[in-house]
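A reminder before we start the practical. When you read a complex entry, don't treat the lines as separate problems. The point of joint prediction is that each chain is placed relative to the others, so the output describes one connected object in space. Small molecules and nucleic acid strands, if listed, are placed in the same frame. In the example below there are two entries. Take a minute to note the order of the lines before looking further.
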Amino acid sequence: MNLVQGTNSGDQREIDKNKTATLMNIGAVHMAVHDFGAAIGTLTEANELMPNHPKLLIRRARAFIGRGEFQKARADVDLVESFEYLDPREISAVQNEINKAEHAAFRAERAIAKAAFSG
Amino acid sequence: MERGAEESGAREFRERVLASGAEAQRNVAPYLEIPVLRRIIKTFTNDTRGDFEKWACNPLVLEMLKRAKSALDEGRLTEQEAETVMIGSLLDGGKASGSGNSSGGSKPGGNSGGKKVRVETNNLVSALNEHVQLRMRGNSLYEQRRFPESLRTYTEGTNWGFLQPSSNVPKSRHTVLSLSWLLFVHTSRYTRLTLSFLHRKRFLL
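Here is the predicted structure of the whole assembly.
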């Protein structure tokens, strides 16, 4: 796919669409094996090809959650929310995921700090 | 030196053919005696996964070979003619024609290297179909939680499974093409010109 170029903009768009879809799939596989860094890289590449695809941004937000990069996750979700394209319940679910993961990360950090200073 | 490399290449090719299954050997056997077709078959050995049989047992590939052979047998095209045209084309700067051609311009979408292949709409459709099939296979593997295989399939889709030079083969030489592209393009200029020549003669499509 990297080596193919359409002869007109319509064809090129079709090629890019297919490549984006494939990159999104690759991102999903990386996430399934908890390789969130690779997932973010792949999804960012896809986003460069087809910017601001709502599903792509939501997926990347979840990858950011996996990496503990909550601000970036929120930024992606906020952007999707601004499009008013996806079901608000879906957006709300991801926002909840971010809050929950952030809270869990905070608790874990606090526990580590407590353990470090309790000795 | 060159002769030695040629002999070694021929020996390697023979070994690869002999190592393949009986069906694959039977399929390619009638075409091996024709140098032009043998060169095309030789490119099958450069499959990224070393899967010679995948190509040698592919009905569309076999159909293409059959039609090319029949054209040569019936005198509509001679090997000499093919050679002359190919050499002429090479001296002419290798102006590839036909439905697809390669150029060394900027990378599409700023992606990985290699020559770009410009593809006409009608040819793009079959290639995209093939690509969608790869994705569907990847999806199915993903659902089965076979993630490594799924990733491999998707990656193959991203690379579109073609024009990936094998590590031990010089880039300018034989490279396996995905079926849809086999008829149109090739990184090996020599074979590409053969194919484009055959295509011009309307034997292949």
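Discuss with your neighbour: The two ends of chain B are 39 Å apart (CA to CA). What might explain this?
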